[in-house]
Amino acid sequence: MGSCISGKSNKRDSSQTLPLKPQKYLKFLDNSGILTNSYSMIKKIGEGATCQVKLATCKNTKIQRAVKSISISNEKLRIKAEREIEILKKIDHPCLVRSIESFKDPNNIHIVSEFYTGLSLYDMLKEGSGLNEKEALKYMFYIISGLNYLHKLGIMHRDLKPENMIFESVDSESLLKIIDFGSAQYLKKKVYKKKCGTILYMSPQVLEGKYTEKCDIWSIGIIFYIMISGTHPFYSDTEQDLLDKIRHLPIQFKSQKWANVSSETKHLISSMLAKKENERLSLENVRKALNYSLNIRDSEVINAYSTTIAFNTRSELHRSIVNVGLIKIVGSENVGKMFLHLDADGDGVVKVQDFLGSDPAKLKESSKSFREFEGDHLTFTEFLISFNDWSEIFGGNMLKSIFDVIDEDNDGMIAYGDLEKYSTRIHLLKNEMFKGEKQNGSVIKYEEFESAFHGFQGNLIIGLS
């Protein structure tokens, strides 16, 4: 984990470049409860100067999560932790960590995220002597996809390094995800002076204390070089010599490792590691120059589209229950690659035309394809919702586990107050729960809850009767 040294700088104008729309579904929950009432801590899996990460299990669903506990022993740490949570709430992309819930106590803020079973990029590289060009391009595609989205959102990471990139699973074809947003910052200034990150991955401008979001491009350029060569381009035995090389030494491709690497890839790395920021490529141009695409069959795309347009809910009550599933059960594994493939322009959302192309007849016919999700596009969370088979997710004993998650006071009934925090449209939920003709007024017993969900058919969710 990197460090930051503060300073002042001029304000900068920053505009959101990603499409915005009302959200029916919940992607992150600020939980007012006690962490250990919901999760059992298993073991420590990571540690930083002011935080530690533990593997945890949800007591009701038995799903494993990663819990990052951040010290808030002083005001500065509290503000930093709250900014990290604010950023994690905003990000929604398959190549960025998916955080789902937070808890707070007098000493710590706890962030609950998906638990990824794969190695970090650092550990994977440590086991070998570098990757071939094709492998490196694939991993850079994932890194650049996530970072391009992040920059479009108006956020820079500032601590990109192999330790902060982790494979989703142990599968050799697993997605690579960027984690640890403790040093991330909004792009609200023209120039930043706070030195953040790890020296090995700091750009010349960060070292000088006068940089922009292009510091992230430098960092991933260093990572790109290391992935192929197995060595740092400016490695030195002393810190001062390292700093001098970062500032002044031109990038070189002299080792035998580069003999069979294409001139296009070497040129791209050189452009990412340009000493002057105004000569360094933008992320959008890096994405275009990378020219990498995933191998997804047309039949898989058609199936994804059919699954997406089939998803529908009939009530805010059911949406709230889906939200519980999102927070407590669902993982994004095996969904991200399809999303990346469909997001051809790399803007971080999937549109109808991404499925169907630009054929006017097809688009007109499918104008209401995303009827469950307002607007003409799907965010990653919405894609995750529509892509999953909820009858399977809520199958077996999991439905009872979900009921128990909602029923926090263990009285065997779900009341409006139990569900309120899982709804993004509280007024609609309240109207549904307090219908005059509804038995027991605002209370749902498990038998009624279970009976309604016996009506699950694929992705169609019926309303409670």
UniProtKB/TrEMBL annotation:
> What positions does the domain Protein kinase occupy?
39-294
Gene Ontology MF term list:
ATP binding; protein serine/threonine kinase activity
Highest rank taxon of the organism: Eukaryota
Under the heading SMART domains, the entry gives:
S_TKc (SM00220)
Q: Which PROSITE patterns match?
A: EF_HAND_1 (PS00018), PROTEIN_KINASE_DOM (PS50011), PROTEIN_KINASE_ST (PS00108)
**Pfam families tied to this protein:** Pkinase
Entry annotated with the keyword Oxidoreductase = no
**Assembly and interaction partners:** Monomer.
Entry-linked PANTHER family: SERINE/THREONINE-PROTEIN KINASE
Protein name per UniProt: Protein kinase domain-containing protein
What organism does this protein naturally occur in?
Stentor coeruleus
